[in-house]
Structures are given as structure tokens and as C-alpha cells.
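Whiteboard transcription, Tuesday session. T.W. wrote the C-alpha cells on the left side:
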């Protein structure tokens, strides 16, 4: 998967939320970047609002447009509310699970750990970040020095982030379990998922 390596503060200012975590520049200048940012009076259309919400989720989960659209299309085929299904698919990706368990300090770090083969699911090595986890899946760090060192570092940097109720973590064993599938209330998304659904369903 292609990594976003551009200016992060600029993206956070454009979208109005700290997409990549705490951003000091967003506190100082809480308006869009560019010389016309603070004075812009351009009318915001429904299309622009939908695009803005979609970009928030896409950058937050670190997906390219094609990947994100595939998530939406999968959610649309599922039974239930499409927006909630989409959020559930995003949150139960393996990279999101590793990040939520606190085994990695950031989502890119979680993807790197998975891609380098440091993570096992139900006893089998999985090196695909988009792997869809299910209820009762066991996620663990491989039993070697390098893998454990990476996970230990990740947990040290993630101490301020609580593990969600729908996951359980054994820090000593470096293992986590998907207790149940997350609900809309568990996720508390950074964007309005219904606006994203309406954007794609035009």
C-alpha cells in the first residue's frame, strides 16, 4: 500500500481535525492552509462536505482512494446500515486492531509490523494489513526478540491510549483478542460516515 508522506499539518488544517494525532499548528491556525484560508467565504456545497468527510476517514485510516472505495462497496453489500458497516470494516482491519491494542504507536507502525511478519492471527503469520479480523480471533506478536522489542516499544508509546471495550489485551503475553465486533458507539468516528455514504451513492 502506498504511504502518505506529504505535509501532515497541512492535511489536518485543511480537514479541520488532527488526523495524524496532536498538531500544534492546528491550535495556532485553525483554518485552511494558503493565503486565502482565514478569509475564504466560498459557499460549501453538499458535494464538498461529503468529500471532506470522506477524506477525513481515508487519511485517518491511511487508505488510498481505491482501497477506501472497496471498503464502501463491501459495506454496501452487507445487511444493516451501510455507514456503520463501513466503520466496522475499517476498525476490524488487522492494522487497526494492532494499533487499537496498543502494540504499535501509530497505524503506519502497525502496518510495518504486519508487513514484516511480526504478527500472528490464530497462530498463523499474517502479513496483509487489510486482513479482516472476526470475533474471537487471537492476535499475537511472534515469539522472537525483534518482534517483542517492537511491540514493547509500541506499548510504551501507547500507554495514554486505552484499549477499546470490544478488545482484550494481555500485555505480558503480548496477545489480544477480538471479544466482539464493534458497534457505532464503540468507534466514535472522526467523520460523519453518513455523509460519506451519500457522497459515494450519488
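and on the right, the sequence the group agreed on:
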Amino acid at each position: 500500500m502506498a504511504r502518505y508522506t506529504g505535509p501532515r499539518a497541512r492535511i489536518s488544517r485543511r480537514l479541520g481535525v488532527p488526523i495524524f494525532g496532536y498538531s500544534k499548528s492546528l491550535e495556532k491556525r485553525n483554518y485552511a492552509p494558503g493565503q486565502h484560508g482565514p478569509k475564504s467565504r466560498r459557499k460549501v456545497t453538499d458535494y464538498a462536505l461529503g468529500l471532506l468527510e470522506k477524506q477525513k476517514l481515508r487519511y485517518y485510516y491511511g487508505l488510498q482512494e481505491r482501497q477506501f472505495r472497496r471498503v464502501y462497496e463491501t459495506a454496501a453489500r452487507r445487511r444493516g446500515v451501510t455507514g456503520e458497516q463501513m466503520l466496522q470494516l475499517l476498525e476490524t482491519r488487522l492494522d487497526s486492531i494492532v494499533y487499537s491494542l496498543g502494540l504499535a504507536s501509530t497505524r503506519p507502525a502497525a502496518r510495518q509490523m504486519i508487513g514484516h511478519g511480526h504478527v500472528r492471527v490464530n497462530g498463523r503469520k499474517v502479513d496483509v494489513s487489510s486482513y479482516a479480523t472476526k470475533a474471537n480471533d487471537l492476535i499475537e506478536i511472534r515469539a522472537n526478540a525483534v518482534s517483542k522489542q517492537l511491540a514493547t516499544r509500541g506499548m510504551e508509546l501507547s500507554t495514554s491510549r486505552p484499549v477499546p471495550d470490544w478488545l482484550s489485551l494481555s500485555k505480558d503475553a503480548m496477545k489480544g483478542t477480538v471479544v466482539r465486533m464493534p458497534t457505532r458507539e464503540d468507534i466514535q468516528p472522526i467523520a460523519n460516515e453518513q455523509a460519506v455514504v451519500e457522497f459515494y451513492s450519488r
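Someone added at the bottom: Residues 46-61 form the longest helix (16 residues).
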